[in-house]
Amino acid sequence: MSDKISVSLMQELLQEAYDKIKNDTGGANANYIPYLANIPSSLFGISVCLSNGEVVEVGDTNYAFGIESVSKVPTAILVMKQYGAQTLLDKIGADATGLPFNSIMAILLEKDHPSTPLVNAGAIAACSMVKPTGDPNGKWEAITDFLEALCGSKLVLIDELYKSETATNFNNKSIAWLLKNYDRIYDDPDLSLDLYTRQCSMGVTTRQLAIAGGTIASDGVNPVTGTKVFEAGISPQIVSLIATVGFYEHTGDWLYTSGIPAKTGVGGGVMGVVPGLMGIAAFAPPLDSAGNSVKAQKAIRYIANKLGVNVFGHKKFEIVQ
Ligand code: GLN
Fold this sequence. Notes:
The protein is α+β, with helices and mostly antiparallel strands. The protein has 14 helices and 10 strands. It has 2 domains: 183 residues, Beta-lactamase, CATH 3.40.710; 132 residues, DD-peptidase/beta-lactamase superfamily (Beta-lactamase). Helices cover 45% and strands 13% of the residues. The strands form 3 sheets. It has a 5-stranded antiparallel sheet with strand order 3-2-9-8-7. A 3-stranded antiparallel sheet has the order 4-6-5. Strands 1-10 form a two-stranded parallel ribbon. It starts with a strand and ends with a strand.
């Protein structure tokens, strides 16, 4: 027997989650990137993209916020697509660090690889590996083309965020050059860091992130545009990377309480993936101590628990009209 999920049920559930959580005052905007500190803290949106292409949403779902570390997922997929899943494992790795996303200690402790493309070190290494398109700006074009295919629509760089982050990313500069010391970055460190900083500064809506999650949940076929974005064979590895380290040092607590592999960004976005069923995204700027949006995680957890959706569980779901 499978449980039935319909658009109207999802709409009700999203509204219920939104109403329950919207006045939560926990957390604080990221303050180490000046642009993010100034985003209105009360913004809050939730979107779901079902694998049949239906999108259900509530709240500020058209507000373009900084994608930040959620961008680590698309670029990791692009590298897997260009080189294969094994090369990503060999050159970057797939282990959780158990440490903050920007940890230098993590690189020192495990100097044979940056551990995973979903922390800063591995993400900068992933940017260094991207094969360019034929354009003079080819690496950047390859990254943005892929991100847009995953989201199913155009994204715009938030120039003010890019400048703000470039002016203050001293820790990330150290990471890029430390990787160079260990031969774990595969292009010029400054250029690779710039690509990483730019990808983190792309504006994205919860709708676009839910569709990106829906594309990963649908084995690489974008459920809204119908475009095949990547080969189905790499889906399990992508979801395993997200499950392993998506919430950094809070990942175990997150998975234990929500059952949904999800990736966060310090812009306040979270993108979750339920293979075969849906992508789910939420956004609210105030963050917990690990840099994960407080309201977005509460919203996704509430919806997952209410539905009984859990990638470690047995319950089956059928999408009905
Ligand atoms: N651009 C941010 C940084 O490198 C991304 C961090 C994040 O979203 N966790 O610090």
